Amino acid sequence: MISQADLKAAAPAAPNLVALVDRQVRMNAAGAAIKHKRDGRWQDVSWAELARRARDVSDGLAALGIRPGDRVAVIGDTNLEWMIADLGILGAGAITATIYQSNQPEECRYILENSGARLVFCDSAAQVAKLRAVKDRLPALEGIVRAQGAAADGYERALADLERLGQEWRKANPKAHEERVAKLGPGDVATLIYTSGTTGNPKGVVLTHGNWTYEAAAVEKIRVISTGDVILLFLPMAHSFAKVIQAAWLATGCSCAFVESLDKIMDNASEVRPTVMPAVPRIFEKAYNTVISKGFASPGLKGKLFRLAMESFDAYAEARVAGRTYSSFGLVVGKRLVFPKLKAALDERFGGRMRFFVSGGAPLSPKIAWFFDLLGFTILEGYGLSESSAASFVNRPGQNRIGTVGPPVPGTEVRIAEDGEILIRGPGIMKGYWSNAAASAEVLKDGWLLTGDIGHLEGEHLKITDRKKDIIVTAGGKNVAPQNLEGELKTDPLVSQVVVHGDQRKFLSALIALNEENARKWAAEHGVPAAAPLHTHPAVIARIQEAVDAVNAKQASYSTIKKFAILPKDFTQETGELTPTLKVKRKVVTQRYQALLDGFYAE
Fold first, then answer.
1. Sign of the C-alpha dihedral, residues 407, 409, 414, 420?
2. What is the pLDDT, as a whole number, of residue 197?
């Protein structure tokens, strides 16, 4: 067990999140808190302006009768209006219940009902429409505050109108805001983060102001994020990863730039020139596969050099994962003629100032991390759960150990149980699940959070091997971690998603979804008719078999994939196979393709 007595957590910078904002106003009122693109140009929002608008919302909510401890929900993209709503709710002494912008109406209804939300903030007409579709089954919900468009009726209120209401109310109650904020302590609840619901209805994780200010102070102490940084943020604010980045932003006083949309991440990066970009592994997987696909498709000498370099890179990455050094003619060629050009191109796309990326939310393939490292980009992988305020472990700048999620942040303790489960204790651990004492008791034991993840310590660095509930036990009694196989297969540019199956079965099988764009390009280059279904075409099947064989060659016989099927379409959030954070819902996929899976094992 690591107690980190020599790395005591810094005292919380403030008793609550609102006080962090007030501190930035005192220190740097005119500084750019937020950068966002409106009317075709990038605009800055100062700390003073952000605090003023959030205070107007706080007082507007007070005028509507919102009291400390009440729940108010927010649904929408990661943008200025989300931050104003969240900080305004907290300034009213209320609790923010977060909802993913991709949640369907019934999912929204569940969270609003479970949290007992009195109001909900929306950033678009589309979100308003989703909520109005279920409002008749939400008698406790008093109305909608919309950031865009005029109120359609008395059930709705425009954000600008709420801010004006707050300004008027404050004239008669000039000290109310300061008095509310002064009463907010570290133990008061700030946020309900709803889990992504991979195994049933989501649970509301109860996180306090003290959870967030602790995390903010810890991140500030290890200098993962510093005052001069510009963070490019597109993570959904309903996810704890984004929320801990928000806390660190408020504590350090750096600038936060919001992307216009997910398909404009690279365009916006080249415009605002960020220094830090937090992202889930899916973003790095897509970037890697795009680079690889384009490189392999290059004609002539350029393509030959790329293929030579990547053949050597595969051996290089395998050696580095095993802790060995590696050199070859192909790698030397790659370092001199191929990788510097890739580095220059990506550097330009990211704006030329990127200090490092931060990866969290799911396991990052070491192969992809080593690829970025070879190009001169650092990905600091971290680990935590919503139940631990997200940032429990993170690799440090200058001390990055690829393949691990780093040491605990200052003040957090870790213990490995006899069965390999990772246990965490510290100031970031949740109070429990909202209105769910039984579920809370299952994961909170004597102050320790039972994470459900399996791993071990390499010195102070934590290495995660799998999710406890996902471990496959074959009919022969062998334990297999499916995420390792899935992660390796997803580094193939033609593969988008993989689900490995085989619990209590004689062998492992897999469901594979294609990267449609890359697969179509490959198919066209290899004589596959444009109209042909790719998932059943013999040439495509043979190509994917090569990828499976390459992965199998590195495995023990019991952990090789004996049979697979290519699915007709990729997994999506809309079809229910992916969570809003782009993790595969194994239970949903397994049930949907049960007949196909059973067919693998038919005598």
1. negative
2. 56
